[in-house]
Amino acid sequence: MNRYYSGSYSYLKERLLEIVREIQKNPAEKITFIVHTNQMKRYLKEYITQRLGILINAEFFTVIDLSKKITGKEPITDFEKQIILKRILQKKGYNLDGFAWDLGILLQQLKEFEIPFENISSKFVKEIISEYESFKSRSFYDREDLHKLAVEEKTDFKTDHLIIFGIHAVPELYKKLFTKASKLSKSLYVFSHFHRDSGYYINHNHFKKVREFYEQISDFVIFEEEKHPNIQIAKGVYRFDTSYRVNSPYIQIHNLPDERSEIRFVSQKIVHLKKSGVNYSKIGVIVPEAEAYLPYIKEIFTRYHIPYYLTEENRYIDDYSCRKIMDLLTLKIKGISKESILGVLSNGVFSIENPDEIHKNIIQSPPFFDFSEFEKFILNGKKFDRLKELISNILNLPDEQDIKFYIDVFRKISSKFLKETEGKHFFENLLDRIENKKLFAHLFDRISYTDLIDILKLFFEEEASDKKDRIDGVAVVSPTQAEGNNFDHVFFLNLNAGRYPNPLKDELIISREELGKINYPYHLLMQELLNFCSIFDRGKFIYLSYISKEISSRKEAVPSIFLQEIIRITGKKPEKTYPQPVMPDEIKAEYPFIDKKISDHKKRIDSYNKPLLSIFNIKIDLTFPISATSFQKYPQCPYRFFLEEINGFKEEAIAERKEISPIDKGIVIHEFLEKFYKNIDLQSIKDPEDFVDKRKAALKKEFFSKINPLIDSLIPSYRPIELKQAEATFERIISFLKEDLKFLKKNGTKIVLIEKSISDRIFTGRIDRADKDPEGNITIYDYKTGKNPPSNIKKEIKTKYSQLLVYKRILGEKVKKLGILAVNDREKKFRYTVDVQEIDFVEQMLNLIMEGVFPPVKNSLCDHCSFSDFCPRDEEINRKIKENYKVFEELL
Fold this sequence. Notes:
The structure is a single chain. The chain is built from 39 helices and 21 strands. By secondary structure, it is α/β, with parallel strands linked by helices. A seven-stranded parallel β-sheet has the order 9-12-8-13-14-7-15. Helix 3 (about 65-70) packs across helix 7, helix 21 (about 405-415) runs antiparallel to helix 22 and helix 33 packs antiparallel against helix 34 (about 690-710). The longest helix is centred in the last third of the chain and has 29 residues, at about 720-745. The chain is globular, with a radius of gyration of 32 Å.
């Protein structure tokens, strides 16, 4: 029995749950889902498993996944299709990026709707398509080719129950594929979000044709009968009935000044929802053009400590080290300027000399536009050889070369200049993937640098949404990815004319006549319209917003046609959530210059109203004892210490699943070392190297018994990278054990404390290890498991490693040395020690804490601080700190 259900997503999911519950009574029965997006897979899995507890013998496919399953073949991506088309155009003397994109869309339409190429009257377009098909026929398939192959080929694929859910575009090729798939199953269930009396259904034949097809392959149809006001509002959109009115208490409409204000408003709403008991995972933020909003989301959500995850992850924007690497690679394209050099500077990503001094020179310099001016104004004759070499390596690259040449240069840059960050590992893995890509070898004997950067950006912007762990975080999604969501509270942003719907995306390069006398069969507007209407569902509180002016262009903005429809249907007047003097359409007549005056005045305030040092003096009640690890933050930055240790603000963990967290890795290594040293008799060891080598296999088994479960939790494509890192770490630890045992035996030193908690009235802490020499002198060690060892321990003992000074204070005069055992040190030096100086550094810092002195310190750690985006640090505050608190003079 084949059934077809049509209605709101809440209704569709309820019917789906009933069907799955019945099927699951026989666990041997196989269920196959075909859905529109990877995100919809997640929504359905969550919805079903939360209610049934388990989902047995079920598989989820998008349409292309189904074709890959039937054929066993992998298609080229849409981006790769564009690269092929762009290359064909270039060979004909046309360098038009947008034209290649348009051609790719056109090809998709022609193939999906089975429109013969011969129908196109444009000789030029037919010629391009012909060359594309000729190149591809050698050994590649695009998505539409794979669908056609799936229809034609025999297959062993079978299922007991086929479920088509939420697919609202069914061109001729899809019809054939779904018809074939339905015959490979005992039963078929179709679910679509159509309301028979809705405006979009009544006025667009496309939706009627989709319904007709689904009815043809089904035995009977069931339509939802629902009177909920949200659903009634959705039905009224594009109905063009001015008398149609529905009020809903579940919908709010807000007008905000700009994008930043819009995100700040959303953040404040989310905080209130969380306080009222709403889980973050039940909140969704829909952004039509996420790239423009991500910087504000990252900055302001971090400020409000709202955990979030992106279903369409963009490394280039959202990962700091990746963004800096891309800024470097695009330097040749953008050219030398103050802005482009500032984009490259980062002590945390690149191994270069004194970026803070370079930053200061750039800010104070006149504009510059070439490398000679950069040297003259910025480097000032001083030696910044590494920075000069890094920038020269990029600027001197040829405009065109073969891919291998560029990749070899990038590898050398990575090896010499990139510090160990996630961005470096991803970048090096990316270079391997590009080098081994068969398509590029066929396509390019030589490639322009601009094209290569476009390819790199594609990989930096890869989507990994369906592989991420779901955390209790706010989801940031596109309108398409929001369809069928499980949110209780939905924020739909940027509902401005020209943004959503976006009329520019509907433009095609070919006329109705050239398309066989039919319009683009599934107009993008229809998809946007359906996405928008699907949000209005039972059980949802909906917050719609638009802005008055764009930050980047300062252009005035008005509500989109979609939002105007909601305003018309509900009769709700948009709330000016951040009140403005007058609305944009009124300001022209009465106050033509008021907005510029306000903006200029704000700039003057920002320039001259620098914070005074006294505002960072805050009296507090301290709770003793203070942990040594907490105290260690104060010399690095008192302001961060105040926010984290006094106020309790902590950055909430976001499950990235790209690498093992440093904390988890550190715990594994600490426990491994503790067990090793507690189980050895140093006196009985004659040859340390032989002793460790004989136990290496057992040690490796023990180490990886803890590491492998952490690796298995990562995104699959990242596991090989992390496994390689773990193997390298293990080999370094083995080298450390050999060196350490030799040192202990040679010097007659004994280990007297291992992982020991200590405390006095003021401080508490846990010592990783303490050794005693034959004279009774104590050396306290702290294990460091990262790859970056101390660069200058004599200086860093007062900042990065000041907890060791606290341990010395507790244990007393017999402590003569303090040290770091960098067990993962790539240089294999491992041991870094400093003689204890009888200073009152700890007492001075403790007194400042007790006095309530918490100014922000500007230093190299700012790049990696979770409070960096809104910290009021600046050079003037640093100067005042050194003047008023001498103990900080050396540290700054």
